[in-house]
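Supplementary notes for students who missed Thursday's class. We covered one full example, reproduced here. Read the sequence, then the structure, then the short commentary at the end.
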Amino acid sequence: MYTFTPINDAETGTAALAIYQANADYYQTIGEPAPTIQTVLEDAKELPPAMPASAKHFWLVKQAGKPVAVLDLIEGYPEQATLYIGLLEVREHGQGHGRGIITQLEQQLGTHGYQRIELAVVHANKDAGKFWTALGFALLRQVDGELSAGNEQLLDIYSKKLG
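Structure (token representation):
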């Protein structure tokens, strides 16, 4: 069982940064600099246009009290019945945490009226595409996106129907 703690203070921010830093290869793959606490703070605030702050959930995911992942969710984006995963970063890959977190999330979403989950993966991040496909997500389309100023990437948009 995983627990979800909001990342909203120095302790949770520092724990999130450690998870970000454990994924240095991810940042290199997507063309972003090594993460800093500023990266965490920016991710904690980032929202699609016109979405209220109340739709954002930026969590430190723990198992048995130990931080294992960071999960960023947006409720009702891009459609009301959709939950958007903005980020899932796991500290230790190959331990089943990513699959376990998403499985638990899907089980809990069934009681909240969501019909699907959507997310974007940087096309160059082939391992992430394989991960989401293995969890039953289907590639919907590809779009151009700007990850940060001057860093434009091809994004693969994945979706999974719930229920």
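Commentary. The first strand starts at residue 2 and ends at 6. The chain has one domain: 2-161. If anything here is unclear, bring it to office hours.
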